[in-house]
Amino acid sequence: MLDLEWVAGNKLPLGEYIASFVEALTTHASGVFELISEGLGAFITSLTHLLMWVPPLVLIVLIAGLAYFLQRSIKLVVFVVLALLLVVNLGYWEASMETLSLVICATIVCLLVGVPIGIAAAHRPWLEASLRPLLDLMQTIPTFVYLIPTLILFGLGVVPGLISTVIFALPAPIRLTTLGIASVPKSLIEAGESFGATRSQLLWKVELPYALPTIMAGVTQCIMLSLSMVVIAALVGADGLGKPVVRALNSVNIADGFEAGLAIVIVAIVLDRLCKQRPAQGQKKPK
Asked: Torsion angle, CA of 67/70/76/82, rounded to 10 degrees?
């Protein structure tokens, strides 16, 4: 029989191993993490200042124009204008721009890392099998668990919030890129090969165009997952709509909490509608 008391009394020091690893990183690679922190912090700050430099009404018009260019929908344009005017009316425009810059930066990092990894995993089954448990861990481990080491490595501010957001949202573009590339019909690949296409030509002219709808679904999921981390990022010093939510939670202020939460929902819906792929000409929209 297995002695449970012996099992409980001989605890594996897994937490101590992780703590020692993080301590070694802070000791021997602090300069690298400071460089990353300064670079990402400067990028987010510059983007935030750019968004705030543009007058709100001008930026609303630009976003509405982008919505029409991408979706060709007057209803969507009207919704975007009214929704963003509501954000201005509630007094959360600057916080919304800070949140938008965080989401944009996190999405860019996720795509730059996730899409190439997804392409490689689609072409190498052993890599996809190796990544699967790691991606499961990234999606299921509680956020506060990896928020602690990121806070230690990158310090207080927006950067640890960004890194934690990237860790949480990165599995979506990797998985959906892998799915999209792997679902390309073999007949298309064989047709490209019969015309003498190289592997890079097959990737850019056959696989990526076919997988684009699935990859865009990964982009949308990445944006939604990033927005779900707004409040968590505010706990480590990130600006944006998460801060008023945390303040409302601490003071049990229902009105402020609801208004800030509504602003987050508006930003999420606008970004989701902008990134949704428009049906091809002559194709009916799904009901």
From this structure: 0
